[in-house]
């Protein structure tokens, strides 16, 4: 498996690139690149990795990432089985820090956009009415060319600069410590965990995938992911539990077992540590919020 680091290269003839993505699954390669990226999921579910953040994603997930912030929208396993006939769909915009030219970006009129771009270094999740408005504008942008397309992008950025519905994703202390040649190694680790989190995961096996000793791998992973490997696995399991709670097809005990926890008490403990609520409280608040919409 080859991870593409600079897969969003913008041609010298363009100020930015907008793409409509449609495939059985989103690209499973963990990666980062030098461009800013605005991405919205129009169809598909799975787990989203941005910096040191792990969350389930579904239709409507919108994220704005800054340069060299590692990210991955990993589709659920079912999307990789052709027999299921599942599809993913999204729109992505790439542009560089000084896409309008260094001198113009320093002007007073661009101050709010400069501040927005600075905030994006930790990733921004965009919700609410801002999300709905920009989703529609991104759909329109796909079909625009020339000056109208640039005006549309500037309108999108202007809306983001004035929105109170943009929330920081990665922790403020997060720094990308990865090198380009480490992306293949980390993609293997992420993929292994995503395929095996429902059962016991052996540190020895994961370390072997990374061609390291268990102790070396533990130090390496914590220095780069800003969390221990065991916490990383717990966050993936809890993220999947949140998704199952949203679907309302299983009780809490069944969800605990399905997500790889060996006891219900351990599930409750880990869930509360990560979400700040116990599973029943989380379920109650989630469904109340869906009724109130």
UniProtKB/TrEMBL annotation:
Keywords on record: DNA-binding, Transcription, Transcription regulation
Gene3D superfamilies tied to this protein: Homeodomain-like, Jelly Rolls
Pfam families listed in its UniProt record: Cupin_2, HTH_18
Positions of the HTH araC/xylS-type domain: 187-285
InterPro entries, per the entry: Cupin_2, Homeodomain-like_sf, HTH_AraC, HTH_AraC-typ_CS, RmlC-like_jellyroll, RmlC_Cupin_sf
SUPFAM superfamilies: Homeodomain-like (SSF46689), RmlC-like cupins (SSF51182)
SMART domains recorded: HTH_ARAC (SM00342)
Top-level taxon in the UniProt lineage: Bacteria
Keyword Transcription carried by entry: yes
UniProt cross-references to PROSITE patterns, sorted A to Z: HTH_ARAC_FAMILY_1 (PS00041), HTH_ARAC_FAMILY_2 (PS01124)
Protein name: AraC family transcriptional regulator
